[in-house]
Amino acid sequence: MTEHHDRYPIMVEDLTVAYREAPVLWDVDLEVPEGTLMAIVGPNGAGKSTLIKAILGLIESSAGQVLIYGKPYRQQRQKVAYVPQRGSVDWDFPTNALDVVLMGRYGALGWVRRPSAADRAIALDALKSVGMEDYANRQISQLSGGQQQRVFLARALAQQAQIYLMDEPFQGVDATTEKTIVDVLRSLKKANKTVVVVHHDLQTVPEYFDRVLLLNVRAIASGPVEAVFTPDNLRRAYGGKVELLLNK
Predict the structure, then answer these.
(1) Which of 67, 64, 32 minimizes the C-alpha distance to 213?
(2) How does pLDDT run across 168-203, given as a tens digit for each residue?
(3) Which of 66, 167, 169, 181 is most exposed, with the fewest beta carbons within 10 Å of its own?
Protein backbone atom coordinates (compact mmCIF):
# COMPACT_ATOMS: atom_id res chain seq x y z
CA MET A 1 0.00 0.00 0.00
CA THR A 2 1.13 3.52 -0.67
CA GLU A 3 1.59 6.20 1.92
CA HIS A 4 -1.30 8.00 0.25
CA HIS A 5 -3.65 5.18 1.29
CA ASP A 6 -2.14 4.83 4.76
CA ARG A 7 -2.71 8.50 5.56
CA TYR A 8 -6.48 8.21 5.61
CA PRO A 9 -8.46 6.45 8.34
CA ILE A 10 -11.11 5.69 5.71
CA MET A 11 -10.65 5.58 1.96
CA VAL A 12 -13.49 4.44 -0.32
CA GLU A 13 -12.66 3.91 -3.98
CA ASP A 14 -15.15 3.31 -6.81
CA LEU A 15 -17.62 1.66 -4.41
CA THR A 16 -20.81 0.26 -5.93
CA VAL A 17 -23.46 -1.67 -3.97
CA ALA A 18 -26.51 -3.13 -5.68
CA TYR A 19 -29.63 -4.90 -4.40
CA ARG A 20 -31.27 -7.11 -7.00
CA GLU A 21 -29.16 -5.38 -9.64
CA ALA A 22 -30.47 -1.92 -8.73
CA PRO A 23 -27.56 0.26 -7.55
CA VAL A 24 -27.95 1.67 -4.03
CA LEU A 25 -24.47 3.21 -4.18
CA TRP A 26 -22.81 3.97 -7.48
CA ASP A 27 -19.09 4.54 -7.99
CA VAL A 28 -18.58 6.36 -4.67
CA ASP A 29 -15.17 7.82 -3.79
CA LEU A 30 -14.49 9.19 -0.32
CA GLU A 31 -11.42 10.17 1.69
CA VAL A 32 -11.91 10.88 5.38
CA PRO A 33 -8.94 12.70 6.98
CA GLU A 34 -7.84 11.92 10.52
CA GLY A 35 -9.36 13.85 13.39
CA THR A 36 -12.45 15.05 11.56
CA LEU A 37 -16.18 14.96 12.27
CA MET A 38 -17.91 14.07 9.00
CA ALA A 39 -21.65 14.02 8.38
CA ILE A 40 -23.18 11.89 5.63
CA VAL A 41 -26.38 13.57 4.48
CA GLY A 42 -28.80 12.97 1.67
CA PRO A 43 -32.46 12.18 0.98
CA ASN A 44 -34.21 8.96 2.03
CA GLY A 45 -32.95 6.06 -0.06
CA ALA A 46 -29.68 7.84 -0.87
CA GLY A 47 -27.57 4.94 0.45
CA LYS A 48 -26.28 6.59 3.63
CA SER A 49 -26.67 3.59 5.95
CA THR A 50 -25.59 1.30 3.13
CA LEU A 51 -22.31 3.19 2.87
CA ILE A 52 -21.62 2.77 6.59
CA LYS A 53 -22.43 -0.95 6.39
CA ALA A 54 -20.25 -1.38 3.30
CA ILE A 55 -17.31 0.28 5.11
CA LEU A 56 -17.85 -2.20 7.96
CA GLY A 57 -18.07 -5.18 5.61
CA LEU A 58 -21.63 -5.91 6.79
CA ILE A 59 -22.86 -5.95 3.18
CA GLU A 60 -21.09 -7.00 0.02
CA SER A 61 -20.03 -4.47 -2.57
CA SER A 62 -20.43 -5.11 -6.28
CA ALA A 63 -17.28 -3.18 -7.14
CA GLY A 64 -14.61 -0.99 -5.56
CA GLN A 65 -12.81 -1.20 -2.24
CA VAL A 66 -12.74 0.21 1.27
CA LEU A 67 -9.46 0.72 3.12
CA ILE A 68 -8.97 1.46 6.82
CA TYR A 69 -5.53 3.05 7.27
CA GLY A 70 -4.54 1.44 3.98
CA LYS A 71 -5.72 -2.10 4.78
CA PRO A 72 -8.99 -4.05 4.43
CA TYR A 73 -11.44 -3.64 7.29
CA ARG A 74 -11.08 -7.28 8.42
CA GLN A 75 -7.44 -6.55 9.30
CA GLN A 76 -8.30 -3.32 11.12
CA ARG A 77 -11.61 -4.07 12.83
CA GLN A 78 -10.24 -3.29 16.31
CA LYS A 79 -9.62 0.28 15.18
CA VAL A 80 -13.30 0.82 14.27
CA ALA A 81 -16.34 1.25 16.56
CA TYR A 82 -19.92 1.24 15.30
CA VAL A 83 -23.13 2.74 16.70
CA PRO A 84 -26.05 1.19 14.76
CA GLN A 85 -29.50 2.68 14.36
CA ARG A 86 -31.41 2.25 17.61
CA GLY A 87 -34.36 0.73 15.76
CA SER A 88 -32.21 -2.18 14.56
CA VAL A 89 -31.52 -3.43 18.11
CA ASP A 90 -33.57 -5.90 20.20
CA TRP A 91 -34.01 -3.83 23.34
CA ASP A 92 -35.97 -6.62 25.08
CA PHE A 93 -32.80 -8.71 25.37
CA PRO A 94 -32.36 -9.42 29.11
CA THR A 95 -29.21 -7.52 30.00
CA ASN A 96 -28.27 -4.36 31.84
CA ALA A 97 -26.57 -1.19 30.66
CA LEU A 98 -23.12 -2.07 32.02
CA ASP A 99 -23.13 -5.47 30.31
CA VAL A 100 -24.04 -3.83 26.99
CA VAL A 101 -21.11 -1.42 27.35
CA LEU A 102 -18.77 -4.27 28.33
CA MET A 103 -19.55 -5.83 24.93
CA GLY A 104 -17.41 -3.03 23.55
CA ARG A 105 -14.41 -4.62 25.27
CA TYR A 106 -14.79 -8.03 23.59
CA GLY A 107 -12.76 -6.98 20.56
CA ALA A 108 -9.76 -6.51 22.85
CA LEU A 109 -10.60 -9.52 25.05
CA GLY A 110 -11.82 -12.11 22.62
CA TRP A 111 -15.07 -13.91 23.46
CA VAL A 112 -13.50 -16.47 25.84
CA ARG A 113 -11.77 -14.27 28.42
CA ARG A 114 -13.92 -12.65 31.07
CA PRO A 115 -13.79 -8.86 31.49
CA SER A 116 -11.24 -7.77 34.08
CA ALA A 117 -11.58 -5.06 36.71
CA ALA A 118 -9.78 -2.75 34.27
CA ASP A 119 -12.37 -3.54 31.56
CA ARG A 120 -15.21 -2.80 33.99
CA ALA A 121 -13.53 0.49 34.91
CA ILE A 122 -13.30 1.43 31.22
CA ALA A 123 -16.99 0.53 30.72
CA LEU A 124 -18.09 2.51 33.79
CA ASP A 125 -16.04 5.50 32.63
CA ALA A 126 -17.74 5.29 29.23
CA LEU A 127 -21.16 5.27 30.92
CA LYS A 128 -20.11 8.28 33.00
CA SER A 129 -19.04 10.17 29.87
CA VAL A 130 -22.60 9.90 28.51
CA GLY A 131 -24.28 10.64 31.85
CA MET A 132 -25.50 7.07 32.41
CA GLU A 133 -23.32 5.88 35.30
CA ASP A 134 -26.35 5.79 37.66
CA TYR A 135 -28.11 3.38 35.28
CA ALA A 136 -25.31 0.77 35.06
CA ASN A 137 -27.48 -2.00 36.58
CA ARG A 138 -30.73 -0.99 34.89
CA GLN A 139 -32.21 -3.40 32.35
CA ILE A 140 -31.93 -1.87 28.90
CA SER A 141 -35.65 -2.51 28.24
CA GLN A 142 -36.44 -0.13 31.13
CA LEU A 143 -34.47 2.77 29.63
CA SER A 144 -35.96 5.56 27.52
CA GLY A 145 -35.02 5.81 23.85
CA GLY A 146 -32.50 8.56 24.52
CA GLN A 147 -30.95 6.61 27.39
CA GLN A 148 -30.65 3.51 25.20
CA GLN A 149 -28.88 5.57 22.57
CA ARG A 150 -26.42 6.88 25.14
CA VAL A 151 -25.68 3.31 26.32
CA PHE A 152 -24.89 2.28 22.75
CA LEU A 153 -22.66 5.32 22.38
CA ALA A 154 -20.89 4.30 25.60
CA ARG A 155 -20.39 0.79 24.19
CA ALA A 156 -18.58 2.30 21.21
CA LEU A 157 -16.46 4.52 23.49
CA ALA A 158 -15.45 1.47 25.55
CA GLN A 159 -13.82 0.02 22.43
CA GLN A 160 -11.25 2.84 22.58
CA ALA A 161 -11.15 2.85 18.79
CA GLN A 162 -9.55 5.28 16.34
CA ILE A 163 -12.59 5.49 14.04
CA TYR A 164 -16.25 5.82 15.05
CA LEU A 165 -19.10 5.15 12.61
CA MET A 166 -22.56 6.20 13.78
CA ASP A 167 -25.83 5.57 11.95
CA GLU A 168 -28.43 8.26 12.78
CA PRO A 169 -27.44 8.68 16.46
CA PHE A 170 -29.57 11.84 16.79
CA GLN A 171 -32.73 10.22 15.40
CA GLY A 172 -35.66 10.66 17.78
CA VAL A 173 -33.61 11.52 20.87
CA ASP A 174 -34.38 14.06 23.59
CA ALA A 175 -32.52 17.36 23.98
CA THR A 176 -30.33 16.02 26.84
CA THR A 177 -29.18 13.09 24.72
CA GLU A 178 -28.54 15.30 21.71
CA LYS A 179 -26.32 17.59 23.79
CA THR A 180 -24.50 14.55 25.23
CA ILE A 181 -23.84 13.17 21.75
CA VAL A 182 -22.50 16.53 20.54
CA ASP A 183 -20.21 16.76 23.58
CA VAL A 184 -18.92 13.24 22.90
CA LEU A 185 -18.30 14.06 19.22
CA ARG A 186 -16.28 17.13 20.20
CA SER A 187 -14.25 15.22 22.79
CA LEU A 188 -13.47 12.53 20.18
CA LYS A 189 -12.30 15.20 17.75
CA LYS A 190 -10.15 16.77 20.46
CA ALA A 191 -8.54 13.34 20.95
CA ASN A 192 -7.83 13.21 17.17
CA LYS A 193 -10.33 10.42 16.57
CA THR A 194 -12.17 10.20 13.25
CA VAL A 195 -15.98 10.20 13.35
CA VAL A 196 -18.42 9.61 10.49
CA VAL A 197 -22.12 10.15 11.25
CA VAL A 198 -25.20 9.48 9.13
CA HIS A 199 -27.22 12.63 9.88
CA HIS A 200 -30.64 13.89 8.85
CA ASP A 201 -30.93 17.43 10.23
CA LEU A 202 -29.44 19.80 7.66
CA GLN A 203 -29.77 22.80 9.96
CA THR A 204 -27.28 21.44 12.50
CA VAL A 205 -24.62 20.23 10.02
CA PRO A 206 -22.54 23.46 10.13
CA GLU A 207 -22.73 23.54 13.95
CA TYR A 208 -21.88 19.89 14.66
CA PHE A 209 -19.50 18.88 11.85
CA ASP A 210 -16.41 20.14 10.05
CA ARG A 211 -16.73 17.94 6.93
CA VAL A 212 -19.71 16.61 5.01
CA LEU A 213 -20.50 14.09 2.29
CA LEU A 214 -23.60 14.87 0.24
CA LEU A 215 -24.87 11.55 -1.06
CA ASN A 216 -27.67 10.53 -3.38
CA VAL A 217 -26.65 7.06 -4.65
CA ARG A 218 -23.64 8.89 -6.09
CA ALA A 219 -21.33 11.12 -4.09
CA ILE A 220 -22.52 14.63 -4.96
CA ALA A 221 -19.70 16.43 -3.12
CA SER A 222 -17.51 15.94 -0.06
CA GLY A 223 -15.08 18.10 1.87
CA PRO A 224 -15.07 20.92 4.44
CA VAL A 225 -18.59 22.06 5.37
CA GLU A 226 -17.96 25.67 4.34
CA ALA A 227 -16.92 24.57 0.84
CA VAL A 228 -19.39 21.73 0.21
CA PHE A 229 -22.55 22.65 2.11
CA THR A 230 -23.78 25.12 -0.49
CA PRO A 231 -27.28 25.73 -1.87
CA ASP A 232 -26.24 24.45 -5.30
CA ASN A 233 -24.81 21.19 -3.94
CA LEU A 234 -27.79 20.70 -1.65
CA ARG A 235 -30.18 21.12 -4.60
CA ARG A 236 -28.16 18.55 -6.54
CA ALA A 237 -28.58 16.12 -3.64
CA TYR A 238 -32.16 16.88 -2.59
CA GLY A 239 -33.81 18.55 -5.57
CA GLY A 240 -36.36 21.31 -4.97
CA LYS A 241 -37.17 20.17 -1.42
CA VAL A 242 -33.99 21.59 0.06
CA GLU A 243 -35.47 24.98 1.05
CA LEU A 244 -38.19 23.20 3.05
CA LEU A 245 -35.60 21.06 4.82
CA LEU A 246 -33.37 24.03 5.69
CA ASN A 247 -36.24 26.18 6.94
CA LYS A 248 -38.06 23.65 9.13
Answers:
(1) 32
(2) 999 989 999 999 999 999 999 999 999 999 999 999
(3) 66
